[in-house]
Specification:
The protein has a single domain, classed as Macrophage Migration Inhibitory Factor. About 35% of the residues lie in helices and about 25% in strands. The strands form two sheets. A two-stranded parallel ribbon has the order 1-2. Strands 3-4 form a two-stranded antiparallel ribbon. The relative contact order is 0.24. The mean pLDDT is about 95.
């Protein structure tokens, strides 16, 4: 059972549903494994819990 994990910003339910569907369908197409076997995990990160280039994301948005 393949597991696809995405870590990113907070998303609404519709965005999450679209990601799960899209990731599952694409992974199934590429691997030949049925969509029903795909597991998608979405981890939402607060801007103060992630950084790029030595700066917190919450500070970069200012």
């Amino acid at each position: 059972m393949p597991v696809i994990t995405m870590e990113g910003p907070k998303l609404n339910k519709d965005q999450k549903a679209e990601l799960v569907k899209s990731f599952s369908e694409t992974a199934s197409k590429v691997t030949g494994i049925p969509v029903s076997a795909m597991v998608v995990i979405i981890r939402e990160l607060e801007g103060e819990n992630a950084g790029v280039g030595g700066c917190l994301l919450c500070d970069m948005k200012k």
